């Protein structure tokens, strides 16, 4: 049987990227935001809406594929797909685009995410009663009476567990937040571009859900991002250098719990996530390992999500994420520069699509905070539920 890696490695590429401005009040509908980001990505790729024959969306995006096709003026839509769950979807969305192209179902696939995450639906708020009680396989109703209602509550418990097991400190989490803020300060398009932050600022910020402080939380953002996926052969004829998709992977753990989010607390371990088995699959498909990654865009809805993924993706041993983060390894000149546009913590929270856009810019050599000789970039998607990841590579 032919291995997936044998037929997919480097065969597809991201040829165009686009985004809107990031703000706390866009004044636009999510469809308008999605359309603007997709048009920007198509322009970047030197393509027209008429070239688009595939669209991939996130399962909780309010914009449907037919809405976007109509808004763009696409006339030959032959493939569409919806990928979940939530923040775990973005790299999996690119994987769907790759599968569509390699199977001959589409030639030019737009992958997008649009949300009014501050002025509209705020993902840090409790879900509706209909979503969390009784239906859709949710276990959330068992947590609500004990005060566990929102993502911040769940991740704070995971952070507490990591601290108890491994001695992780607030300063180590803070180093992740400060590092991302430094990158955002160099990025004129970041929400936090003009707002500097020191470790003292971080430590004096208010506790939201102990041990997580205000700056351990991602931003709430209005905006959209999009990328254009096509075959590598075709991408090489387009205006910008292609970012080759070396490998993509999706994965979960053996003891995956039903429900949308909070049920992850029922697992045997709270300090290793689906990112660990997904990393194994990804590296096998890519034919490389963590030692080959030059720069990483690591999903950072909270600082603890970044810290645990550093361990799960093999950049340090289990339990050593804190010392690794505090060592300077994550800085622009460190051994693993991360979230070079500022990440969810300081650039903007577009559910992981910002990380893909920045990964492409690093591979092209056009990022504002460009990593020297960046030839491979790891991009990860949301945790701790089922997740996805990919490795982008420079065309040589």
UniProtKB/TrEMBL annotation:
Q: Could you cite one Gene Ontology molecular function of this protein?
A: acyltransferase activity, transferring groups other than amino-acyl groups
Occurrences of domain Thiolase C-terminal (ranges): 267-392
Provide an example Pfam family for this protein. Thiolase_C_1
Q: Keywords for this entry? A: Plasmid
- Annotated CDD domains: SCP-x_thiolase
Spell out the InterPro entries in the cross-references.
Answer: Thiolase (IPR002155), Thiolase-like (IPR016039), Thiolase_C_2 (IPR055140)
Q: What is this protein called?
A: Lipid-transfer protein
């Amino acid at each position: 049987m032919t291995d997936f890696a044998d037929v997919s490695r480097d065969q597809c590429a991201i040829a165009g990227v686009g985004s809107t401005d990031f703000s706390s009040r866009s004044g636009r509908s999510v469809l308008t935001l999605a359309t603007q980001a997709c048009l920007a990505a198509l322009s970047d790729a030197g393509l027209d809406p008429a070239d688009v024959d595939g669209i991939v969306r996130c399962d909780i995006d309010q914009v449907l594929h037919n809405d976007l096709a109509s808004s763009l003026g696409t006339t030959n839509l032959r493939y569409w797909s919806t990928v979940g769950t939530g923040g775990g979807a973005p790299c999996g969305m690119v994987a769907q685009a790759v599968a569509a192209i390699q199977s001959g179902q589409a030639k030019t696939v737009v992958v997008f995410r649009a949300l009014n995450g501050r002025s509209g639906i705020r993902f840090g708020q409790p879900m509706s009663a209909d979503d969390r009680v009784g239906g859709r396989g949710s276990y959330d109703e068992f947590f609500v009476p004990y005060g566990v209602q929102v993502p911040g509550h769940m991740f704070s418990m995971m952070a507490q567990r990591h601290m108890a097991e491994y001695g992780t400190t607030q300063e180590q989490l803070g180093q992740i937040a400060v590092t991302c803020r430094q990158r955002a300060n160099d990025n004129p398009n970041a929400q936090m571009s003009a707002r500097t932050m020191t470790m003292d600022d971080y430590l004096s910020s208010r506790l939201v859900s102990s041990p997580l402080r205000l700056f351990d939380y991602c931003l709430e953002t209005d905006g959209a991002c999009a990328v254009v996926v096509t075959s590598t052969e075709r991408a090489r004829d387009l205006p910008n250098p292609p970012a080759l998709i070396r490998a993509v992977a999706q994965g979960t753990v053996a003891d995956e719990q039903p429900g949308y989010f909070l049920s992850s607390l029922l697992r045997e371990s709270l300090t290793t996530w689906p990112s660990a088995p997904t990393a194994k699959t990804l590296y096998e498909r890519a034919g490389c390992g963590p030692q080959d990654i030059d720069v990483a865009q690591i999903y950072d809805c909270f600082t603890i999500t970044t810290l645990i993924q550093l361990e799960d993706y093999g950049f340090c041993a289990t339990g050593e994420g804190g010392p690794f983060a505090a060592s300077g390894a994550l800085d622009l000149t460190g051994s693993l520069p991360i979230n070079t546009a500022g990440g969810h913590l300081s650039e903007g929270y577009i559910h992981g699509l910002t990380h893909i856009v920045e990964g492409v810019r690093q591979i092209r050599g056009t990022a504002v905070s460009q990593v020297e000789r960046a030839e491979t970039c790891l991009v990860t998607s949301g945790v701790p539920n089922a997740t996805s990841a990919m490795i982008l590579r420079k065309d040589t």
